[in-house]
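Notebook p. 47: complex prediction with 2,5-dihydroxybenzoic acid.
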Amino acid sequence: MSNDTKPSTYAVDARDDVLGRARVIDNDELLSFYKELEAHSANAFWRRANEIEPWEPETRYSPTIWRYKEMRPLVVKSSELVKPEEAGRRVIVLVNDSDPGRQNSAAVGWLFSGLQIMLPGEITPAHRHTASAQRFIMEGGGAYTVVDGHQIELGQYDYVLTPGKCWHDHGVFDHGQVSIWQDGLDIPLMNSLETNFYEVYPENIQKPAFTTNDLPLVYGNAGLLPNTGQTWDKPYSPMMIYRWKETQDALFNLAKCEPGSPYDGQIVKFSNPLTGGWAMQTMGAQMQMLAPGQHCKAHRHTGNVMYNCAGGEGYSVIGGKRFDWQEHDIFCVPSWVWHEHVNLSSSEQAFLFTFNDFPVMQALGVFIEEALQTNNGHQALKP
Ligand code: GTQ
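Predicted complex, structure tokens below:
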């Protein structure tokens, strides 16, 4: 990890004492050479080489859990203190304390996440940005989003897209209920790439321009695509929303036929029905189901993941530490950290919704995965 104040400039790891790693022993002559370089906005590579090129990914993010019983009252409180029209979006951001600069507000890696609450009759003003967004509906009813003029109704445990550059606004109908969802955005990635633009819509909200729910009605019918000259040329899924009932049915159907993944149990990816790929370009999402009593094996991979428990109770061992979770709890697994999941119930399934930055890793050819080989595939718990 980079740290400019560290006096030693090389080799902290015994593995670095080999040809091909930086092993220069500083002397007075070198130290004054470094000063000379600094005066020219330059540095000697070997002073930082072993940090800049770690043996394996070194995440700066900590595994973190945000428990709903603690978060929900805070989210509700935000709805008493500010209006969404004042806040732009009334969102409580999930912050990873180990992100030192926090300039990107990352919950983990390239992923921003927050909890958004909407009361009956409220709206979030229409806007758009380069960053892509997705939402996992945690509670409520009678809520909707409008994406580029397509109005979509939101139900509990639905997964809904707001691809980058699309106009969007949300609301809850007067007859609806208090609605809370988890937002996930690629803001940290877009800001790091210095590509994030933001625009407000000329009116407070978009007028729905199509039949309500038209996109899922047209494109969301399990393998049945319109053959009526419809052409969809956007780089994201035309379905726009994935309903909980279909997602859950898919997992139960899968479980009738397949043993599932040793690391994830039964797992489905929310995919673009036209391509079979992820639903959006920069972020992916999945739903997994752990069988009663299932204790998965540990693996690790590049890419970052936010979890949201959509039913059941269990725990995950992440980087050797145990995190107990129940419905609505949110936690993260940073890049290249060992993790394994356990369903604590002997009679009920456990469901974990996840979103990730895997599409970026895969597009760049740097999605790397490894299974734990020792201890029968389970981590030793750290005290
Ligand atoms: O509505 O796209 O949680 O722009 C934070 C920033 C949601 C959104 C958030 C956003 C959005």
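Notes: The radius of gyration is 23 Å. The first helix runs from residue 28 to 38.
Next step: compare against the earlier run before touching the bench.
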